[in-house]
Design a protein that fits this description.
By secondary structure, the chain is mostly helical. The chain is built from eight helices and no strands.
């Protein structure tokens, strides 16, 4: 148990430090115009959408204020209807799971989780969702059902290893390619 806690803690700390050091430190300062996509070279995979999202949110909620954005006589009054959508969207799935209890898959549809994943769409590309879905289904459905003891022992360690591997590869790709004025290959996964 101690090794699991130690491994997860180390992976979390390493992923956080490497992300901040790479993204906020080296990457933002070394790639010119990274936050201005109009000035980047054509086909460049580098953007800073996370900063744009937080910047826009701080302007909406801090400078302008929600009253000027979302009230009836202003810019986005229709957005308030999504509060009602958020309340009512789980009801059909709850009803169907009660009406058809033999359909086990209905209990696994979690609308708040789906909506929260969709809120990441401005930052994430569609290719990210495919990889998350494939890894999630393989390890939390197939392996969980077939190899429960392996899953119980190794699933969280695997999660920490995947996080650490992503952070290490991000640093490695930066120093191998971008730091040497080389761009990544042009392929369909980088298209918007």
């Amino acid at each position: 148990m101690f090794a699991l806690l130690y491994g997860l803690s180390f992976a979390s700390v390493f992923a956080t430090i490497s992300h901040v050091a790479l993204y906020d430190g080296k990457l933002i300062t070394s790639v010119g115009n990274i936050c201005n996509t109009n000035l980047l070279p054509l086909g460049s995979p580098w953007t800073c959408p996370g900063y744009e999202v937080f910047y826009n949110a701080s302007i909406i909620w801090g400078v302008i204020g929600p009253r000027r954005m979302f009230t009836k006589e202003h810019i986005y009054p229709g957005m308030n209807w999504f509060f009602l959508v958020g309340i009512l969207a789980p009801v059909p799935f709850w009803y169907l799971s009660k009406k058809f209890p033999e359909k086990k898959w209905l209990k696994h549809i979690h609308i708040p989780l789906i909506f929260s994943a969709v809120s990441s769409m401005p930052q994430a590309k569609a290719v990210h969702y495919w990889s998350w879905t494939i890894v999630g289904v393989v390890f939390n459905y197939y392996i969980f059902r077939r190899f429960k003891s392996w899953w119980a022992r190794h699933n969280y360690i695997l999660s920490a290893a995947l996080d650490a591997g992503t952070a290490i590869m991000g640093v490695l790709i930066f120093f191998v390619f971008q730091n040497n004025d080389m761009s990544l290959p042009d392929w369909w996964g980088l298209e918007n």
